[in-house]
Design a protein that fits this description.
The structure holds two protein chains of two kinds. Chain A folds into two domains: 294 residues, TolB, C-terminal domain (Neuraminidase); 114 residues, Carboxypeptidase-like, regulatory domain (Immunoglobulin-like, Sandwich), CATH 2.60.40. Helices cover 5% and strands 38% of the residues of chain A. Chain A contains one helix and 33 strands. In chain A, strands 16, 17, 18, 19 and 20 form a five-stranded antiparallel sheet that branches. A four-stranded antiparallel sheet of chain A has the order 3-2-1-25, with no helix packed on it. The longest helix of chain A has 22 residues. Chain B is α+β, with helices and mostly antiparallel strands. Among the domains of chain B are: 163 residues, Cytochrome Bc1 Complex, Chain D, domain 2 (Orthogonal Bundle); 113 residues, Cytochrome Bc1 Complex, Chain D, domain 2, CATH 1.10.760. Chain B contains 15 helices and 32 strands. A four-stranded antiparallel sheet of chain B has the order 1-2-3-4, with no helix packed on it. Chain B has a four-stranded antiparallel sheet with strand order 5-6-7-8, with no helix packed on it. In chain B, α6 packs across α10 and α11 packs across α14. The termini of chain B are far apart. The chains are: A mainly beta, B alpha+beta.
């Protein structure tokens, strides 16, 4: 080779090498499992504040190679006092997680590049921000502590851009929200618990990313307490862990996406105590579980078809595996459009027939007295009474982003039904309900509601002179 | 050399000078057309696929077949498939899954049945207004039987002497004496009928209907099944099916105790607040008991978080255990366990049955399986031994083969069309599929069946509830009639189906731009009006229509006074689209309307789009003026005699596709010639 050619060969070799190295961009963690693990804290789980449940001291993130279980875990968050609650981006290249940099720091959201393992802080507040989840459109949803706010909430849900900008609160009721995930239809699944005026059992709520159309997705009844986030798999099932009240053990449970309110099943036996779950492949999930009360929660595979726990992937004598993420690209959920218009100060709600209620049944006959009016109840005071139309319909224009409940009254002012759960309407949100405590699988009858032949009643009823943006006719 | 460099430099400068402002202009143009600022700058997406040039259209498009309905020979060896876009009947060897022959029939063949000897097939030609009689031994058409307008479903009488043909456009039933081939009577049916089925006892025929009885907005939606007595060949009664429409097809159990009819339960009387919890459209079937007073019970095939729109055909297995419904909007076959339906009905009080009609969870009692198919499953047929279900995959150009034992699609029969999916074909698939609606609750087809409209009014409550009621508009040949919507708010189809469409209607992620381009192209160029064979079959107007045309074009009233130009019919409704594409106030605003002007609607094939006016208040064309035109703001009409108004209406009914006006009228010809 001539000297000239050799010179050009070296340049070519160097260029190709640079291109290849640049393309690789570091080690990929694809195919590995990222776990959060925490030493047993002995702190009783508090499902209102998240302490001892979502927020565990000295937790850390680690990468596990399921093909090489004997290899030592790669610790990803050595620079953090505590790190947990990982969520994977759709391209499988990044994770969001919640962490405390120093012991006295509040929990904040961070994002890590899985190729170079560098992290950057996403949220910068003095309040705890936990349970992040990626949303389409380079945004995320997370829980942020709003304890002591006027709505009497615990943790509310917020969204922001992935760089932490444009923070928006999306829940406005006296509930506390944890462990949100996105489902394929683009909505947020989240564990929600009413905290005012009384604390109730946790349920799974579903809502659009702008906070609209929040509604019950399913509840686990009195016998199980939700202790993990929910994970939707390709078989149409949503898996989660419910802690049984009688045995105190966690059980893998599932609901069908198509019919979540009436399809809950226990997937695992009662011999093990499960703590967390994550999608692994089509018919298998990864779980953390232990076989005895004093043991540590370790990482296993689990076949959802057979209900059999696979062999152990990873375990530690000092740590419990608390969260799991399988690193692989996955199809991003739908990016839902938003009807929220912050220039509008109210939302509209139509109740088709306030007298329709699941508290009576066709078998029992529709025996409750008919409602004459409804009372709209705020957190601290009544927001007003509204007369019910003859067909039972009510049409309200409610100040946006305030919580309210509704109860029905007869002509003498005695309570007929309710109050139900907390509602709130986002600015410009429109929503409907069929009745009061109605069967949640019912659809409305195709019937014109008398109430919409008139202007909506403003709520609070003394709330006049709202300077409202004129909404354009479609 | 220097000259060359200078020349190249000048050219480069010129190119830059053209390119930069050209690109800027193109960006502004695309932004205007799409109402977004990030749609790709690809000129071909619109200017190639939306071209009206026959040459370009031929280059970029392909001929497809679009199988619609299927019949199976008594021995199960042959399948007969109507190919709607090929104007042919395909004959297929079921075992070998090979095409044995293709027989030319009329335009848009809809349904096919075989006589009891298996020697003849009868095919309805929906755009030719006739039935092709085919000798199956010779594999050729041997006779043509005239029908009413838009023949669709068909059935023999129990004695085999009479052929009943459902006329979907003229909403009646042709009764043909097979010996003479002559129509012996015509019976009224429900609105826009399609399916027909003879009861196993041979006494009654049920005819389905798609469009509801026209009523003022706010009154219940009701669609009529038609009951015909086979012996007397006479109408027995109309059976109103409440809160339902788009009843496409019907099937009996072999024992004859039940008839099952596909249906949709619209929510048009509710404001369009949300898709969640089934607030827009529900889909299911009706169960017509053949005992007692013939109760009609309605059950949904939807589930609480998943919907199965646009049920089209229904068949029942020979043992009466299973019903298969083609859920055409989600490419699925829904399998019903009929005994479970019977048990549910038996254990339910009337109040409970009425509850189940609006209950999404109850389907878990009787829906036993969802079987995926190719695009847009329509007609179904079972093999005589019950082992196979054949599915006309309408927009897949295949016959899907499903094992009724495993309830899986085990194969397909290729009909031999182009494997390439063109932009228009893709657009048609999108229009007929609910995949881009939240939880697949409805497709474009649901409110625009056959790219037309569903005859219902809706309260599109993007603003206030209970206000601005609008009548659904047809999508046929609207490419050159911008702006769109009654409010004329959308300057293009691209805007119409873009971001706001997803925000206020489909409530899920908007179409990716390549899909938006495809569906827009299909809406603009891919669908056509059926020929107006009922009122203007050959372009020669009747005397009354000629008189009406003169009135339509008149410039002076009956008193000889000049009609102001802006108050003449022809001013706002000029050919070829019978719209001047401008906004107008014709004094039809009501107290519940916002104060807006309306986009002047086009009038092609207007006879097929009742009710009329923006809020559908006029049940007929006559009512536009007799009830709602008293101020002479919607044209000068009050000087006219009743006869003149009748003539005007007759003329309006004669209006046809704009293709006539442009001289490109070949699609309007009833192309079938008797061989």
């Amino acid at each position: 080779m001539s000297r000239f050619n050799k010179h050009y060969f070296n340049i070519l070799f160097f260029s190709v090498s640079v291109i290849l190295l640049t393309a690789c961009g570091g080690n990929s963690l694809e195919g590995k499992l990222i776990i959060s693990e925490a030493p047993p804290s002995g702190v009783q789980a508090d499902y209102i504040t998240g302490e001892g449940w979502r927020c565990l001291p000295e937790s850390r993130l680690a990468a596990i190679d399921p093909q090489n279980p004997s290899a030592a875990p790669e610790i990803l968050t050595k620079d953090f006092y505590s790190a947990a609650m990982p969520d994977l981006s759709y391209d499988g290249e990044r994770i969001l997680f919640a962490a405390r940099k120093e012991k006295d720091d509040p929990w904040q959201i961070w994002e890590m590049n899985l190729r170079n393992l560098k992290s950057r802080q996403v949220t910068k507040t003095n309040e705890n921000c936990i349970d992040p989840a990626y949303m389409p459109g380079d945004r995320l949803v997370f829980s942020r502590s709003v304890l002591n706010d006027s709505l009497k909430a615990g943790y509310s849900l917020f969204t922001s851009n992935i760089d932490g900008s444009d923070v928006k609160r999306i829940t406005f009721n006296p509930h506390t929200y944890f462990a949100s995930t996105l489902i394929k239809d683009g909505r947020v699944l989240t564990i929600s618990r009413q905290v005012y005026p009384s604390v109730t059992e946790a349920v799974v709520m579903v809502l659009r990313p702008d906070g609209t159309k929040a509604e019950l997705f399913f509840d686990t009844g009195n016998k199980n307490t939700l202790i993990s986030s929910c994970h939707e798999c390709d078989n149409g099932k949503i898996y989660f862990i419910g802690r049984q009240s009688d045995t105190g053990k966690g059980t893998i449970m599932s609901v069908d996406y198509n019919r979540p309110l009436n399809s809950m099943k226990s997937v695992s036996g009662t011999d093990k105590d499960f703590l967390s779950v994550a999608k692994l492949s089509d018919n298998s999930i990864a779980v953390s579980c232990r076989t005895d009360n004093g043991g540590r929660y370790e990482l296993f595979g689990f076949d959802t078809n057979t209900g059999v726990t696979g062999s152990k992937i990873y375990g530690s004598a000092d740590y419990d595996v608390t969260d799991i993420v399988y690193v692989a690209p996955y199809i991003r959920p739908r990016k839902l459009p938003s009807e929220v218009d912050m220039g509008v100060k109210t939302g509209l709600i139509l109740c088709q027939n306030i007298n329709v209620t699941g508290m009576t049944s066709p078998e029992a006959g529709f025996s409750l007295p008919l409602a004459d009016r409804i009372e709209i109840m705020g957190v601290d005071s009544s927001l007003g009474m509204v007369k019910v139309e003859n067909d039972g319909s009510v049409y309200l224009k409610v100040a946006a982003d305030i919580p309210f409940r509704i109860r029905t009254l007869d002509a003498k002012g005695s309570v007929v039904n309710g109050p139900g759960g907390w509602y709130y309407l986002r600015p410009n949100e429109r929503r409907g309900c069929i009745g009061c405590h109605e069967d949640r699988e019912m659809v409305p009858a195709n019937r014109y509601a008398v109430a919409v032949s008139k202007n909506p009643v403003a709520v609070p009823v003394h709330y006049e002179g709202i300077k409202e943006k004129e909404v354009e006719l479609e | 050399m220097r000259k060359l460099i200078v020349s190249v430099g000048v050219i480069a400068v010129l190119l830059v000078l053209v390119f930069i402002p050209g690109k800027k202009w193109a960006r502004e143009h695309v932004n205007y057309k799409t109402a977004v600022n990030d749609h790709s700058l690809n000129c071909l997406n619109c200017h190639l696929y939306n071209s009206k040039s026959p040459l370009i259209s031929k280059m970029v498009n392909r001929d497809y077949l679009s199988p619609m309905n299927i019949a199976v020979s008594e021995d199960g060896k042959k399948l007969f498939v109507t190919a709607q876009d090929a104007d042919k009947l395909f004959v297929i060897d079921a075992a070998e899954r090979k095409i044995l022959g293709k027989i030319d029939v009329g335009r848009k063949p809809h349904s096919v049945i075989l006589d009891n000897t298996g020697s003849n097939a009868y095919v309805t030609n929906q755009w030719s207004d006739n039935v092709s009689v085919i000798d199956l031994a010779e594999m050729k058409v041997v006779d043509t039987l005239s029908t009413g307008n838009g023949p669709a479903g068909l059935s023999f009488s129990s004695d085999g002497k009479v052929l009943y043909v459902v006329n979907s456009y003229s909403s009646d039933l042709t009764v043909i004496d097979l010996a003479s081939g002559i129509e012996i009577t015509r019976l009224n049916t429900g609105n826009n009928p399609t399916g027909i089925q003879l009861s196993p006892n041979g006494k009654d025929l049920y005819v389905t209907a798609r469009r509801a009885v026209i009523t003022p907005y706010g009154e219940p939606v009701t669609t009529d099944l038609t009951l015909v007595d086979d012996q007397s060949r006479r109408l027995k009664s109309f059976l109103p099916v409440e809160s339902a429409y788009l009843m496409e097809n019907i099937a009996f159990t072999p024992s004859g105790d039940l008839a099952l009819v596909t249906l949709i339960r619209p929510k048009n009387l509710l404001p369009t607040l949300q898709v969640e919890k089934g607030w827009m459209m529900n889909h299911g079937f009706g169960v017509i008991e053949q005992k007692g007073d013939g109760r009609i019970i309605q059950l949904l095939t939807d589930e609480p978080q998943a919907f199965y729109p646009d049920p089209f055909d229904i068949v029942i297995t020979g043992d009466g255990k299973r019903a298969f419904i083609s859920s055409s909007g989600v490419n699925m076959i829904t399998v019903i366990d009929i005994d479970s339906v019977r048990n549910l009905i038996a254990e339910s009080t009337p109040e409970m049955l009425s509850l189940w009609a609006n209950h999404l969870g109850i389907s878990s009692r009787y829906v036993v399986k969802r079987i995926p198919t190719g695009a847009n499953p329509k007609g179904l047929a079972l093999s005589p031994d019950g082992k196979y279900l054949y599915v006309a995959e309408h927009l897949n150009d295949m016959i899907g083969v499903i094992s009724t034992e495993t309830m899986e699609r085990t194969g397909e029969i290729e009909l031999g069309s182009s494997s390439r999916v063109t932009v228009l074909r893709r657009g048609r698939q999108l229009l007929n599929n609910a995949g881009r609606t939240f939880q697949t609750q409805y497709s474009c087809y649901t409110c625009h069946p056959d790219e037309h409209e569903d005859g219902l009014m809706y309260n599109m409550a993007s603003k206030d509830m209970g206000r601005n009621i609008t009548n659904t508009q047809s999508l046929r040949e609207i490419g050159d009639t911008p702006p769109f919507k009654w409010s004329g708010k959308n300057q293009t189809v691209y805007k119409q189906d873009g971001m706001r469409f997803s925000t206020v209607l489909t409530r899920t992620e908007q179409f990716p731009y390549n899909d938006l381009d495809a569906i827009s192209s299909y809406i603009m160029r891919g669908n056509h009006y059926p020929p107006n064979l009922q009122f203007n079959p050959d372009g020669v107007l009747t005397e009354a229509q000629e008189r009406g045309k003169i009135i339509f074009e008149r410039t002076r009233d009956n008193n000889g006074n000049e009609i102001p130009e802006n108050n003449r019919c022809i001013t706002c409704h000029p050919a070829p689209y019978y719209t001047n594409l401008k906004f107008a106030d014709v004094n039809t605003l009501t107290a519940s309307d916002d104060s807006i002007l309306f986009d002047t609607p086009h009038l092609n094939n207007i006879f097929s789009s009742p009710p009329y006016l923006h809020d559908g208040r006029a049940k007929t064309l006559e009512e536009i003026w007799t009830l709602y035109g008293k101020t002479d703001k919607h044209g000068m009409v009050n000087d006219m005699t009743k006869g003149q108004l009748n003539d005007l209406v007759e003329y309006l009914k004669s209006l046809r596709s704009p293709d006539y006006e442009s001289g490109n009228s070949k699609i309007q010809k009833a192309s079938f010639n008797k061989e």
